[in-house]
Specification:
Layout: H1 4-16, H2 19-26, H3 30-44, E1 49-50, E2 57-58, H4 60-88, E3 94-98, H5 107-117, E4 123-127, H6 130-138, E5 144-148, E6 158-172, H7 176-179, E7 193-196, E8 214-217, H8 220-228, E9 233-237, H9 238-247, E10 250-252, E11 262-270, H10 278-286
Parallel strand pairs: 3-4, 3-5, 7-8, 7-9
Antiparallel strand pairs: 1-2, 5-11, 6-9, 6-10, 6-11
Helix pairs in contact: 1-2, 1-3, 1-4, 2-3, 5-10
InterPro entries: LysR_HTH_N (IPR000847), LysR_subst-bd (IPR005119), WH-like_DNA-bd_sf (IPR036388), WH_DNA-bd_sf (IPR036390)
Keywords: DNA-binding, Transcription, Transcription regulation
GO molecular function: DNA-binding transcription factor activity; transcription cis-regulatory region binding
Length: about 300
């Protein structure tokens, strides 16, 4: 039957583009990779690659098998990680990375539910833009991330949705955009835009720069302060600006024919090396109700 070595050779060849490159990536000799592929083809009963050209090309049957091979290897890695944790009696402390735009209304109750079962656990909290939260979890700097949903999560990262938050477009009450009703969205691009992006200059899927004149911040609090001082317009969570709106410091951008308010999903993510451990499962379950009542 198929072996892990065969599947590794198969996937590595596809991802690297050749048998020799796959051998280098797996730190093996090319003949070993070629033999694993041949054995996998014999076991499966069909050819995986067309070898008539300079580089091997997947056959239709190989394309069908590829996603199953990748999924099997991912599960195999999870099994190895879980076994290592059990063997070493690992009980890692919990590091939570969270986007500053997400309210913490229910977080403390979630922590209490974890402490009921694991009273000796230590917590660390990191504040970052959603894109940075992904990188913190992927690099294992954080064990859990709470962020606004991103379309491009790295392969293998475990995630689930925990709710949604409302966003809108705001501007300072003394700003030119607050004095008139803009005829369309394009009119906003005539004015400076304020955008949140990561420390590595990456933007989220819904924090895009549209204006030619853009100022950036790496968190919503700086963005909100710049916006309230009249430096430009920007997209902010409605719960964050509620007080400033009530005070009249900032307003929703008046615009004709268009309702700009939308809901952004919030996800909790964990690295697969820890997500199956009971303490991390408990934390994930506890923060499912994180946003309950936060927008009341």
């Amino acid at each position: 039957m198929f072996s892990i070595e065969q599947l590794q050779a198969f996937v590595a060849t596809v991802e690297s583009g050749s048998f020799s490159a796959a051998a280098r990536s797996l730190n093996k000799v090319q003949s070993a990779i070629s033999q694993h592929i041949i054995n996998l083809e014999l076991d499966s009963g069909f050819e995986l690659f067309d070898r008539s050209g300079r580089y091997p090309q997947l056959t239709p049957q190989g394309k069908q098998l590829l996603p199953y091979a990748k999924a099997t290897l991912q599960q195999h890695n999870r099994l190895k990680q879980s076994a290592a944790q059990i063997f070493n009696h690992e009980h890692a402390d919990l590091t939570i990375a969270i986007d500053e735009g997400i309210p913490m209304t229910q977080l403390y109750a979630a922590l209490e539910r974890v402490l009921e079962i694991y009273p000796g656990v230590n917590f660390e909290f990191l504040a970052a833009a959603s894109v940075d939260v992904i990188e913190l979890v992927e690099s294992k700097r954080a064990t859990t991330g709470i962020l606004f949903s991103e379309l491009d999560l790295p392969a293998g990262i475990d995630f689930e949705s925990v709710g949604s938050l409302q966003f809108d477009v705001y501007v300072a009450s003394q700003h030119e955009l607050a004095q008139v009703t803009s005829p369309n969205l394009e009119y906003l691009t005539l004015h400076r835009q304020l955008v949140v992006r990561s420390k590595t200059t990456k933007t989220s899927s819904f924090q895009k720069a549209y204006s030619p004149n853009v100022w950036y911040a790496d968190n919503y609090y700086i963005l909100m302060d710049l916006l309230s001082k009249g430096y430009g317009w920007g997209v902010l969570p409605t719960h964050m600006v509620k007080t400033l709106v009530e005070q009249g410091t900032i307003v929703r951008v008046p615009i004709e024919f268009k309702q700009l308010t939308w809901q952004a999903n919030v996800d909790v993510i964990q690295h697969p090396s820890v997500s199956a451990m009971p303490i991390h499962t408990r934390l994930r379950a506890a923060i499912r109700d994180l946003l309950t009542g936060s927008q009341q």
